[in-house]
Amino acid sequence: MGLEWEQVIVHSVDPGALGQWWAEALGWVVVYSSEDEFEIRPAPDRMPGLDFVRIDEVKQAKSRLHLDFRPEDQDAEVARLIAHGAKRVDIGQGEQSSWVVLADPEGNEFCILGQRSQ
């Protein structure tokens, strides 16, 4: 029996707004939208995707799961995402310099990694 990874569920107070923010940040497409759910994927038939699902309470603590992204140019990508509405956050990462921790508009943390070590 095999498993196919279909999506990551992201609880959100405003799934449409947060899902649209991520769609624009990643350059992904919207594959489903309703009042309580907003799903995006890299392409309509490509998985895994991100599925934003309504939840009434706001995020209260550090996320137990977060996404890591490795761009070609870390500094440029961090600047682009901050201009798009992300914020730098401190989750106890200290003075390391190989990744930058950001948060989306609802406070969900994600990392922008530096160059891969050879």
UniProtKB/TrEMBL annotation:
- Show where the VOC domain sits: 4-115
Q: So which domain of life are we looking at?
A: Bacteria
InterPro entries, per this entry?
Glyas_Bleomycin-R_OHBP_Dase (IPR029068), Glyoxalase_6 (IPR041581), VOC_core (IPR037523)
Q: What is this protein called?
A: VOC domain-containing protein
Pfam families this protein is in? Glyoxalase_6
Per the UniProt record, the source organism is Kribbella voronezhensis
